[in-house]
Specification:
With about 500 residues, the protein is of the alpha/beta class. The chain is built from 19 helices and 13 strands. The strands form 3 sheets. The protein has a 5-stranded parallel β-sheet, with helices on one face. Strand 6, helix 15 and strand 7 form a beta-alpha-beta unit. The chain starts with 5 loop residues before the first helix and ends in an 18-residue tail after the last helix. Pathway: Amino-acid biosynthesis.
């Protein structure tokens, strides 16, 4: 420990964010550039170097958090980067996008604010890139074995990097025109600038990983034929089958799935459009869904200049303190304000919200819109009718109300991998009871030499779980190809976050 009393003498501090009025006019990350470095060493010094660091157990990657906290507190950035990369292929992603269950498991969090683990992680990797510590690590020799990875999200990229470094020849197949999956087209630029992704992809290319974009396995290429061409295949296509909202009026124009809307906004940042085909500019927007995707929609809507925006969450508004039935070290359901919610609150973006832009305990019962136009053309949505619900989801009598809405975004989560793309049928893969790809304890599917990693097998989850699954699946593939492996396997398919 650099400072044995650091957790007593140093209060928790977060890096400053740029003023709301400034950041909603651009798409850059919300933090003040360089605002983390002046405080991060002292924040890392708050780590107590616990005898049993529960932050390890709370992180599926098993990140060596006390070790790199101490190194940062001593300004030993090179060694901190080595310890961080020992367990995490892409800490610049998790340091920006993960909800930090490790902080919920911090022993200090029993009775004090937790160590700012995620901020320390981000500072380490950003400093490592700036200092030239992150370099390609190509294998010393090739195994002669080939692997195809289907999907270039965090699970697929992690599996590909691990297998490439193990000496196998790896090709990643991505149906979109650019590599990255939801990291590229689902995550808004203000949460993670895509230069971080591009920089890591350049490292992977230098190591020997090949990328095939614009190739839909199951449509453009038969999945069974692809399997025959490679010694092993990793299916990491994510859980992209979005949930629907089957209520009257769903057919009205102006109602879009979040993953129809967000990729177009990201494509503007990539230079594909000057103006997105679907935009919130000047519109009264309602977002249905209270999760992270809904918050991503919220921040995007604000930057596009919506007239107003309200986010509906069917759940009861949580409290600000850890509930008794969710004790340390589990990740509690408490009221959290994202950067997008902070923006909406300061801008007064929603005239109907309970707090920031959100209406809690609200369930949509129908959409209302204009009459069909000449020739039977579908009319546009004009309003959303909702009802208040109790903690069990039952309607509250007399709680119906109408919100103005000429644009609605559905952010209701995902139900597993897409079933109609041909891949599952062509490989003869089985699905489990939850609609995900079935696999055994070694990530292997029922098809010889085919493995499943990430949300495709686990279901919708966190980026840190996707990376952990990619690393573990890579170890399983390496063992299948070589008979043994030295690659780490931090999780099994049966592992789940700590819950009560």
């Amino acid at each position: 420990m650099a400072d044995p009393k650091g957790f007593l003498s140093t209060p928790r501090r977060l890096p400053p964010r740029r003023p709301v009025a400034e950041r909603v006019r651009d798409w850059n990350e919300v933090q003040v550039p360089g605002g983390l470095l002046p405080i991060v060493s002292a924040q890392a010094g708050r780590c107590m170097d616990c005898g049993i660091p529960f932050c390890h157990a709370s992180c599926p990657l098993g990140n060596l958090i006390p070790e790199w906290n101490e190194l940062v507190s001593r300004d030993d950035w090179r060694r901190a980067s080595e310890r961080l990369h020992a367990t995490n292929n892409f800490p610049e992603f998790t340091g920006r996008l993960c909800p930090a269950p490790c902080e919920s498991g911090c022993v200090l969090a029993i009775n004090q604010p937790a160590v700012t683990i995620e901020d320390v992680e981000r500072a380490i990797v950003d400093r490592a890139w700036e200092s030239g510590y992150v370099i390609p690590k190509p294998p010393e020799r090739l195994s002669g074995k080939t692997v195809a990875v289907i999907g270039s999200g965090p699970a697929g990229l992690a599996a590909a990097q691990q297998l490439t470094r193990a000496g196998h020849t790896v090709a990643v197949y991505e149906r979109a025109d650019r590599v990255g999956g939801l990291l590229r087209y689902g995550i808004p630029e203000f949460k993670m600038e895509k230069r971080h992704l591009d920089r890591r992809l350049a490292q992977m290319r230098a190591e020997g990983t090949k990328f095939r974009t614009g190739v839909g396995v199951g449509t453009d290429v038969d999945a069974a034929e692809l399997r025959a061409r490679y010694d092993a295949l990793v299916v990491a296509v994510g859980a992209t089958a979005w949930r629907e909202l089957s209520v009257p009026g769903r057919e009205l124009a102006g109602i879009h799935q979040a993953m129809e809307y967000l990729p177009l906004a990201n494509r503007v940042q990539e230079g594909d459009f000057a103006r997105p085909p679907i935009t919130a500019e000047g519109r009264h927007v309602v977002i249905v869904g209270g999760g992270d995707t809904g918050a991503d929609c919220l921040g995007t809507v604000l930057r596009q200049g919506a007239a107003s925006v309200t986010q509906l969450d069917i759940h009861v508004r949580p409290g600000t303190e850890r509930p008794e039935d969710q004790p340390w070290p589990v990740h509690p359901k408490i009221y959290r304000m994202s950067a997008a919610h902070e923006e909406a609150q300061q801008l007064g973006a929603s005239p109907d919200a309970d707090v920031d832009a959100r209406l809690f305990s609200a369930a949509t019962i129908r959409f209302e819109g204009a009459h069909p136009g000449p020739g039977g053309a579908t009319g546009g949505v004009r309003a959303l009718r909702l009802v208040g619900v109790d903690a069990d989801g039952r309607p509250e009598p007399g709680s119906e109300r109408v919100l103005r809405a000429d644009m609605v975004l559905l952010a209701l989560g995902f139900s597993g991998p897409e079933r109609d793309g041909g891949l599952i049928d062509q490989l003869g893969l089985e699905l489990d009871a939850r609609g995900n790809i079935a696999r055994d304890e070694g990530f292997a599917t029922g098809c010889e030499g085919v493995f499943a990693a990430g949300d495709a097998g686990r279901g919708q989850s966190l980026i840190v779980w996707a990376i952990a699954e990619g690393r573990s699946a890579a170890a399983a593939v390496d063992r299948y190809l070589a008979g043994s492996t030295t690659l780490p396997a931090p999780v099994t398919p049966a592992d789940r976050p700590m819950v009560v």
